[in-house]
Amino acid sequence: MNVMNPDISAPEAxxxxxxxxxxxxxxxxxxxxxxxxxYAILKAVRATLAEVGRRPEDVVFVSxxxxxxxxxxxxxxxxFHTIHGRAPAVATGVKMANPDLxxxxxxxxxxxxSIGGNHLMHALxxxxxxxxxxxxxxxxxxxKGQYSPASATGMRSPSSPGGxxxxxxxxxxxxxxxxxxxxxxxxxxxxxxxxxxxxxxxANRGTSFVEIxxxxxVFNDGAFDAVKDKATGAERTIRLEHGKPLVFGAEGDxxxxxxWATGTARVVPVGQGGAVYDVTVHDQTNLALxxxxxxxxxxxxxxxxxxxxxxxxxxxxxxxxDDPTRTMDRAxxxxxxxxxxxxxxx
Amino acid sequence: MNVMNPDISAPEAxxxxxxxxxxxxxxxxxxxxxxxxxYAILKAVRATLAEVGRRPEDVVFVSxxxxxxxxxxxxxxxxFHTIHGRAPAVATGVKMANPDLxxxxxxxxxxxxSIGGNHLMHALxxxxxxxxxxxxxxxxxxxKGQYSPASATGMRSPSSPGGxxxxxxxxxxxxxxxxxxxxxxxxxxxxxxxxxxxxxxxANRGTSFVEIxxxxxVFNDGAFDAVKDKATGAERTIRLEHGKPLVFGAEGDxxxxxxWATGTARVVPVGQGGAVYDVTVHDQTNLALxxxxxxxxxxxxxxxxxxxxxxxxxxxxxxxxDDPTRTMDRAxxxxxxxxxxxxxxx
Amino acid sequence: MLDQPFASxxxxxxxxxxxxxxxxxxxxxxxxxxxxFTKSSALTGHGFMTFPDFPAEIRxxxxxxxxxxxxxxxxxxxxxxxxGDTVDVLVALNPAALKTNLPSLxxxxxxxxxxxxxxxxxxxxxxxxxxxxEDGSLDDVRVEAVEISRLxxxxxxxxxxxxxxxxxxxxxxxRNFWALGLVYWMFEQDRSATATWLGTKFxxxxxxxxxxxxxxxxxxxxxxxxxxxxxxxxxALAAAQPKPGTYxxxxxxxxxxxxxxxxxxxxxxxxxxxSYPITPASAILHGLAKLEGxxxxxxxxxxxxxxxxxxxxxxxxxxxxxxxxSGPGMALxxxxxxLAAAAELPLIVVDVQRAGPSTGMPTKVEQADLNMALKGRxxxxxxxxxxxxxxxxxxxxxxxxxxxxxxxxxxxxxxxxAYTANAAEPWRLPDVDAMADIAINRDIDPEGFxxxxxxxxxxxxxxxxPGMTGLAHRLGGIERAAGSGHISYDPDNHQEMTDxxxxxxxxIRDFLPAAKIETGDDAGRVLVVGWGSxxxxxxxxxxxxxxxxxxxxxxxxxxxxxxxRGLEExxxxxxxxxxxxxxxxxxxxxxxxxxxxxxxxxxNKVTGQPFTVAEIDAALREHL
Amino acid sequence: MLDQPFASxxxxxxxxxxxxxxxxxxxxxxxxxxxxFTKSSALTGHGFMTFPDFPAEIRxxxxxxxxxxxxxxxxxxxxxxxxGDTVDVLVALNPAALKTNLPSLxxxxxxxxxxxxxxxxxxxxxxxxxxxxEDGSLDDVRVEAVEISRLxxxxxxxxxxxxxxxxxxxxxxxRNFWALGLVYWMFEQDRSATATWLGTKFxxxxxxxxxxxxxxxxxxxxxxxxxxxxxxxxxALAAAQPKPGTYxxxxxxxxxxxxxxxxxxxxxxxxxxxSYPITPASAILHGLAKLEGxxxxxxxxxxxxxxxxxxxxxxxxxxxxxxxxSGPGMALxxxxxxLAAAAELPLIVVDVQRAGPSTGMPTKVEQADLNMALKGRxxxxxxxxxxxxxxxxxxxxxxxxxxxxxxxxxxxxxxxxAYTANAAEPWRLPDVDAMADIAINRDIDPEGFxxxxxxxxxxxxxxxxPGMTGLAHRLGGIERAAGSGHISYDPDNHQEMTDxxxxxxxxIRDFLPAAKIETGDDAGRVLVVGWGSxxxxxxxxxxxxxxxxxxxxxxxxxxxxxxxRGLEExxxxxxxxxxxxxxxxxxxxxxxxxxxxxxxxxxNKVTGQPFTVAEIDAALREHL
Lengths: 346, 346, 624, 624
Ligand SMILES: Cc1ncc(C[n+]2csc(CCOP(=O)(O)OP(=O)(O)O)c2C)c(N)n1
Ligand SMILES: Cc1ncc(C[n+]2csc(CCOP(=O)(O)OP(=O)(O)O)c2C)c(N)n1
Ligand code: SF4
Ligand code: SF4
Ligand SMILES: [Mg+2]
Ligand SMILES: [Mg+2]
Hints:
The complex is a heterotetramer, with two copies of chain A and two copies of chain C. Chain A has eleven helices and twelve strands. In chain A, α1 packs across α6 (about 195-205) and α3 (about 110-115) crosses α4. Chain A is about 25% helix and about 20% strand. By secondary structure, chain A is α/β, with parallel strands linked by helices. The longest helix of chain A has 15 residues, at about 40-50. Chain C folds into three domains: about 20-235, 3-Layer(aba) Sandwich (Pyruvate-ferredoxin Oxidoreductase, domain 3); about 250-435, Rossmann fold (3-Layer(aba) Sandwich), CATH 3.40.50; about 515-620, Rossmann fold (3-Layer(aba) Sandwich). By secondary structure, chain C is an alpha/beta fold. In chain C, the strands form four sheets. Chain C has a seven-stranded mixed beta sheet, sandwiched between helices. Helices cover about 35% and strands about 20% of the residues of chain C. Chain C has 22 helices and 21 strands. Chains in contact: A-B, A-C, A-D, B-C, B-D, C-D. Chains B and D meet through β2, α2, α4, α11 and β12 of B and α1, β7, α10, β8 and β9 of D. The structure holds thiamine diphosphate (2 copies), iron/sulfur cluster (2 copies) and magnesium ion (2 copies). One thiamine diphosphate (TPP) sits at the interface of chains A and D.
């Protein structure tokens, strides 16, 4: 419902029939490369939206520029494909103007971490009630394959033919450093995982940041194969669950032990070989733990998937003192005009 | 020495006489408000430069815009007072063009954390060999007192007359999240502490980030008094030393115990009352610990001063493969021009 | 020093206006003096225009020339439209203030100084090698040298106030009110409003309030009892003959703040002002932030790009998105403005211009952002650009901008500047009930809805906003098919959309009032054309020349894009057309490109200072 | 379908030029075909101009119209300066390619298609309801419909290659080379360069190389052995009569890459190219990144603002700071350019324009950033703006920009566009030894050194850089005192500095060559004025009109700011002056403002496509 303009003449939404993914599918042909990971993400997003149950007209997708940023066109909600890097700021304005809307922001690693890093950081700091989805293909897809701030050191690309010398930013760490209160990670093709993460992100009132490892078949193919493949995935990733021991592996035979003295994680055997008490328990409210989990990567450590950190806090949207539906009116204006030091000439 | 232009005609620098703070003092009248904390920082910087011993002509100060950003004018080195928020990017260019220079960047909390957040983050990620000094007065001084991203929630200011609803960014946390390898904190008037921190920052080859709590007498007077006052300082701050237990208090009778299960710190008595083994030892290479220390604040916890985190890594400057003194010449150009597929008409 | 009576130099009674300038250290409360004097002038029915002249530093070391703060006001009848070229009464509270402000005092003008401040240290700090009170440098003016500090201290600490807790330091701080008291005496003005204000200001410390009032009274009494030549003619200053109504003192910033608020009230759209602090635009943010809780939302963004894009987001979601800034911040918004233009969303963008380029001189006036406002976007994104011609006109201009933005679905740029922003004038409160609604049409039929279908008259697309059922759509910066709004790379479509965007400006031209000569003759020898804050000085000069019988006119542009109808005709009726602006000729180029047959001349100044009447006068006389 | 012999439609032998267009799916290797054909044309001594026409999507679903990639080339004699208005030979590898490209084929032109691709699925994907091969829609052209896929497969898998590991999929990928082989046959061109290239490209898999060469040969043989009407006249295409020298194929991007590198070599300054990827400017970054290790430094910044400011930092530290981008990125650099202008640092800023506003149409051409380049900064920061008139001219332009930037201590903007960036032409390698040094004066006397002391002729300040003893100084964006460079709020100083910044442009005007008519008559009926990438099409049209005896001239501006000397005189010698540009009249306005007496007419197009000769011709004829 549009809180600003109660007298909208458009027909009332039907709020009884349950929604399906199709209700969130626009009439636009999807134009990503065949095999692009964004297709799978789109599918999970549509399914999540249907499940979450907000009417399409109350949902807004805002995006910057990039392959991932094409998302709005493919969803039958309101959408705004803006300019490179600024989507979190646009979305902040959208949410400010109508806090009732369900606002999602989609952008690639370039959009969110390179040119848009500052807006990402400030949205997180303010805890604006937005769901930020970042398909991370560790490359600039749309501009044809340059390395991105998320690319591994050494990546050869048109702009780094000799291999990039830059250290990649860890998106989850960056979000934590900025004061994020919901940080999660999943991957495009993990359809048994991604929708759950998206739902959790949606449920958080405040800025939810979700990194979605995404395959770019053209410019960085297979970058996350080890993480996503059925065969290796179980060994190369760990699915975090709040309050549960950090156990992983196809057989559930490995655990993560955090050595606090050095602030590092290591893999320990679980069951037969290792002692169970060595396995650290995931506490999604423990920020120090989150910084360790967020940084785990192969080959020695599994990549952490799921909710890395979640410590809900009052959202910017809720904290703003004013009633968001209130508008200055003529009476208020008259009062305001005569509130100063006035004098009258007759 | 200017590596680019070996045939400089200017007289050779005298490298034998030891330098003094006066050698780094320009002829410009210092124009901050009387009592501004920046005076003390300037003093410490000049003293540090003299001690560090690079010749004034090899030192460059780059700044953005703000009260703090006036620094370059007051130093007899090369200086560039640029535009708001972009100083880390300008400095990256300076260092790229002449890695031999000793490059410092000074900016306020608005300059570095608000408009300049993205450049700060990327300089840190790349680990460009720069010394970043951030006088943090938790306010926009130059523009007359609006709250800044570092201001406490609830701060009343011209732009937040009802009290700001935004959560402040923790500068050290932000730096850590961005991948910083040197993060330290001190305060303007702590002349027994600040110069040491500045020297350590200078010694790190890579981006060193130093937050300097600074009093703005006009717009945020006393914001850090508790931390800096002789009387309360010892109780309200802890001076970190690598490898030493986290002990503080005028009598050295308090310690910090980190509860790893929750990722939080608490104060424990030291000596008579408390058991010494309860006190955590500072390890400046432990990033998880750093994230706990960086976030400590009053009234319950002391503010951490000193080097919070230091894990040296190869600097961007060193990693760039090319010889920085090398310049394309005519021979190279000829080679390049005929390197493609050519044909000859005679 | 002159010893003829001061008042004899003033213009004749009844038509007279006088210019007073207060100057002192930034710590001396000069701006407070200025605003108190302004208030009292207003309450005694005078017309006025003020010009606060701040130092660039926040608080430079006391006593230095770069720490001097000044405030100038011209008071008199309705004709007062400028803060005055030269000063009749200069109050200089310290040597540095004298040094930097003396040049503004006309020969024979009255100089009031505090001799207690003219000690060795004070003179040195100001960079005086000899004492100007003694070295003959004040021979041209009439000096009233008074031991203000001593007299203030005596007054302030008397009557048991010292005992009540008033310290010497407190007393010294009241020195400015002593001076104000004497100035009130000169102008025979009522000082009760100031006394009341002091009571409120020091509400919690009545003894301090009393000390200040005592100083004020003492200054006034000094005029009565000393043998100071009574400046009788000052007292005979013309009173204004304003239209009946309720008035208040309005700065350009106030005008913008109230105008935006009015736009919100008249449109029923909640105002979202998104901004990043920058001098001199910050004051708009401050003004609107005070109205949070009354239906106004402000957002201090992390930078100007976020401010602009958040405002765009607010508009997209159905609010009245507004963003404001000054020069450097405006440069940063260029890309965002292109998006708003492409998406055809309403948006108001206020640029309070300051002297550039780059950081330039942040507190000084210039009209040099016009080029950027007109053309500073990549690709072709023509936008309406309006300029506020003074404090009161700022109110009207932003209101007009809101009307055009919503009616035509377009961003509108409003130019103000550092002069108008801070200048104050009397302003008659508008009759809120008589103001027309800003109608927003949300009655959109979902049947066959397309976001880029247009109204045939205005060429505006319909403004459907999130939350409205059946109208969900996607906007974006990639070229859109005319009508459906779907992404389109079709060559003909791009030409069509480019032409449509340009044609919208023509429709806006039709909507706006035609150009008209606002002062002086409709035809004749010289027409002076201006825009923005120069209005007062152009109008005053033209009125004076008209009074001398010269056929001179003044045309002031409110809209720089589109240029209004009727310009060519207006220009054609004069022998010479002079384009006056505080830049090197930006409007001039624009007019030359549009009207190649008119032999325009430029009258330009880029010093960070406003024009004076004398400058305009001299330039126009060249063509008489 | 027509059955008259194809060649008869071509222009007469000796003067002839022909236009070939390859089109197919983005996955079909069309751009490779184009560059191979270009190379062979160059090696056989033809003049040419190419026009790659990419789809906007990275890799759209195969077979769709929005996934079609095309490459057009005109080959012939020296006169070839455009890629040609209409196509003589169109190769369409699938139905979608036919659908989108058929309009470019002239009546009677030859259409080569792969019938194997015209199956139900292919036709559907392309959105054909009936088969164009059967429904009469190709009646106007001569169709050569060949089972290219089948023939390619046969050739590629023969001779034991299937056994050597060549799969059917590999074979299908060679289809484009079959087509190329046939086109080579038509033009009687040597295919050995392509065969060699294939050998290198598939060096590790010689069997694949062999399969592709076999396809190439098979296509060629097809021409020989079938009863295909021999297009004899194509074979008689004019060869170019180029100046003796060594040549290579140069795109506009190559020109910029090599020009910047040359500027570095000639100045002894290390090149620092700082950029953020954006289409179509990214290719400059890619080109220069390959030269890392040879004295060129590139920096992929986090955004365009960082790119610009890092380049400024590099210049401050004594390097040759360069930043490059396209439209939206250029908008973001505005504030940084103001800083460089204020600090008077050398800097080169390349803007490869694309269709706007906002994201616009990123792969399409437009010349609509001129306004922004000239005026898109706050305050007054006039800068030189040069435009590259073609691939080869791009080299000269950036070199000139480097000369001016360092000699006059100023940022210089260089405009290229999406057309010139990707177009290729034969380019005679310059004689490196004969190129003049770019002299950098670092012989600065520390005695009395002031950073803003100027050379009287150039008005340039001295360029002292960090590391130089005795010259330490501070730069900044706050207004600087003329001379000392210290912060100054002095009104007269600001006027002086404003005037100095403007006067520098006058000195640059003196330094630059005067305007001259470059094609056609020096006086007469119509002068067409252009800038940037339109040069080829303007020149060609004027040459054709001259050949018909019309008194028409062509003047092409290399510098848009300052405008060169001698313009007014040149304009004055024609009855009509037409200003042709791919925008709505930006240069036109500029010229009108400067030369009010000249009755300019605009010839404008904003479709994302370059002008055609026919369009220019028609427009100029209106005035004949
Ligand atoms: C201001 C601006 N700068 C640069 C670009 C060019 N650009 C478009 S998308 C993009 C990055 C794409 O990478 P990412 O955000 O990771 O998205 P992906 O395509 O990989 O999904 C860039 C650099 C632009 N459109 N606007
Ligand atoms: C692009 C731009 N935006 C805004 C400003 C105005 N501005 C100047 S300094 C500043 C912030 C000052 O705060 P901080 O960086 O904390 O420095 P401080 O003055 O407190 O030392 C702002 C907003 C500017 N100069 N340029
Ligand atoms: S380029 Fe990569 S990210 Fe972009 S659509 Fe193609 S596969 Fe997806
Ligand atoms: S305003 Fe604050 S920070 Fe700025 S100079 Fe004054 S005291 Fe220092
Ligand atoms: Mg990406
Ligand atoms: Mg600050």
